[in-house]
Design goal:
Blueprint lengths: L2 H10 L2 H13 L1 E3 H7 L5 H13 L3 E6 L2 E6 L4 H19 L5 H8 L7
Length: 116
């Protein structure tokens, strides 16, 4: 795994940061105050700390307008590298499955008792 992927996975390992990303994914761009209002489990200071981690890891970008800071997903940042990495794993897993015995494996896994 590349360093960029590691940064993204480290940043995404926290539930609050994943909630921040979900909010940014839904809205596109939000101020720190707007994000804090959506994340009721932590305070504004904590949200700012999480945003700093996301920004320094390359997952979000910051835009300043006067005294305000606005955040959005960095679609070309480290999160893309992590996504590509996960896609390659899933692609490899799906191509390695032998589709001819998949139903038997599924029946055995669920404890099929011949009821049909």
């Amino acid at each position: 795994m590349e360093a960029n992927e590691n940064l993204a996975f480290d940043a995404l390992s926290d539930r609050v940061r994943r909630r921040i990303l979900a909010a940014l994914g839904e809205e596109g761009e939000l101020s720190a105050s707007e994000i804090a209002a959506r994340i009721d489990s932590v305070g504004r200071t904590s949200v700012s700390s999480h945003l700093r981690v996301l920004r320094t890891s390359g997952v979000v970008v910051e835009r300043r307008s006067g005294r305000n800071r606005f955040y959005s997903l960095d679609l070309d940042g480290t999160v893309r590298d992590a996504f590509v990495y996960l896609q390659s794993i899933l692609r490899e897993a799906t191509t390695s499955i032998d589709t001819t015995d998949a139903p038997e494996r599924h029946d055995a896994d669920r404890g099929d008792r011949g009821v049909g």
